[in-house]
Amino acid sequence: MRPHRLLIPSASLLLTLPLLAACAGEGEDSGDGITVFAAATERSSMDAVIEAFEQAHDITVTASYADTVELQSTLRTQLSAGTGPDVFTVWPGNGNSAALQVLQPAGFLADLSDTEFAGRIAEGDRAVTDVDGATYLVPVTYAGIGVLYDTATLEEIGGEAPQTWNELIDLCGQARDNDKVLLSLGNQTDWVTQLVTYSLVASLVYSEDPTFDQDLANGQASFTDSGWRDAFEQYLEMDEQGCFTDSPLGTSFEASVSEVAQGEAVGVVQVTATLAQLREETGDAELGMFALPATDAPDQTLMPGAVGAAYGMGAEADNPEGARQFLEFLGSDEGQRTYADEGGSLPALPDVDFDADPALQTLVDYQADGRTVPFMDQLWPNPEVQQEHFTAVQQLFAGDTDIDQALARLDESYQED
Predict the structure, then answer these.
(1) Are residues 206 and 319 in the same domain?
(2) Burial annotation 144-178 (CB, 10 A radius, 16+ → b, else e)
(3) CB under 8 Å to 108, separation ≥6 — which residues?
(4) Residues 6+ apart with CB under 8 A from 27
(5) Are residues 59 and 159 in the same domain?
(6) How far apart are CA 302 and CA 299, in angstroms?
(7) N or C: where does the chain have the smaller number of CB atoms within 10 Å of the terminal CB?
(8) Burial 15-36 (b: 16+ CB within 10 A, else e)
(9) Which H or E element spans position 281?
């Protein structure tokens, strides 16, 4: 999942790797340098880290960025050909073709267990950073999914952050009465489609069944016969009640952020990393965040929260020593602070002295209270489930499928090897 100058560029800006511009060390001797390939969503944070790293090390870093889908396909092709970058984005856990549980079994990742940061990773995060007791990623940010909103726009419609499902639906009508929408929704961008579902599922599934992922893996649960059905139903109900942009399938991620910045929408359901882009577009606006309620019992509301940005090193890296130094920097207090501060996120490693953006206080509180659940795709066994989810939501909004078919396809894709 992710998301900074964050999240993904429009289709017109998709870049293939040979055309990607170097963002550090351009024109310098890179004989002792390293190459970094990262998601476009992480550009501002990575640029800031590279600048700090190069000031402290005699190593040139050449960084390239690509849209998430482009990165996943290009990276896999390069790694298979033995021409991959030294350091690159790796999604924690499972769920897509550039995720830990996909790349590590293929032999594409170097073992990082002997690094200093490996010993600092929180035990609860090792399920998505380690394989068979060995560490293959440096987790850099802790991200959440919730409603990022402009407090002035919320006040303008006479509303306040909803605590229950009924309050949420009422607020959608209140926004419409004031010629706005409560939530901009960019479902034209495929990865955006998952965010509302995840937010609803956090409460509708995990508040009653914290072991759902294990039950699913053991064949004792299914998408069809779980709170996932309720989540899809409520997702569509929100659309019917006018909670979203008039044409979600015709709205991109970038356009959805701009709708909030321009005051056309109160907020947007997004990963916390999007806060940086919102701040860039809204200037001095005061931004806030609330968890998307899915029930009428506030104490049942949970938030998706998990390791966000993470990086690994190629098993065949051209400069393994330099790559390790760079990853150690990402895992240092300075690297964690620099990356998180620039991107409006939280450090992934515990005990890092860090002043969080005030807009992220909700996530900080939910994390401290143990009221977060992992991003759902991080624990899925293959990338097909996430892709099926993207497609299912777009087809539901287009009226080309129904909830029964969508859930059945998720169950089927989950069983694929």
Answers:
(1) no
(2) bbbbbbbbebbeebebebbbbbebbbebbebbeee
(3) 79, 84, 314, 315
(4) none
(5) no
(6) 8
(7) C
(8) bebeebebbbbeeeebeebbbb
(9) helix 275-282
Tokens read off for 98:
């550039």
276 has pLDDT over 90: no
Give the integer Cα–Cα distance in Å for 46 and 163.
Answer: 35
Look at the alpha carbons of 91, 95, 98, 104 in this order and tell me if their dihedral is positive or negative. positive
Residue 378, pLDDT > 60, answer: yes
Name the residue among 88, 30, 38, 36 with its Cα closest to residue 58.
Answer: 30
- Same domain for 405 and 322? no
* Residue corresponding to tokens 């890092």: 352
Q: Write out the residue range of the structural domain in which residue 380 sits.
A: 145-305+372-414
Decide if 361 is inside a domain: no
* Closest to 374 measured CA to CA, from 272, 305, 290: 305
State the DSSP string of 82-141. Answer: T---SEEE-BSSSSSTTBHHHHTTTT-B---TTSTGGGGS-GGGHHHHEETTEE--EE-E
Which string of b and e fits 87-118 if b means at least 16 CB within 10 Å?
bbbbbbbbbbbbbbbbbbeeebbbebeebebb
Provide the 8-state DSSP code for 189.
S
> Could you tell me if 141 and 91 are in contact, meaning their C-beta atoms sit under 8 angstroms apart?
no
Q: Are residues 232 and 319 in the same domain?
A: no
**C-alpha gyration radius of the chain:** 20
Contacts (Cβ under 8 Å, ≥6 apart) of 73: 97
Pairing of strands 138-139, 310-313: antiparallel
Residue 5 in domain: no
Q: Do 243 and 327 fall within a single domain?
A: no
Confidence of residue 345 (pLDDT cuts 50, 70, 90): confident
Task: Render pLDDT for 34-55 as a digit per residue (tens, 0 to 9).
Answer: 999 999 889 999 999 999 999 9
User: Is residue 378 within 8 Å of 128, Cβ to Cβ?
Assistant: yes
User: Given the structure tokens 């092709």, which residue do they identify?
Assistant: 77
Torsion of CA 85, 312, 415, 1, to 10 degrees: -90
Structure tokens at 174: 């209140």
- The angle subtended at Cα 346 by Cα 343 and Cα 350, nearest 5°, is 145
Query: DSSP letter at 314?
Result: B
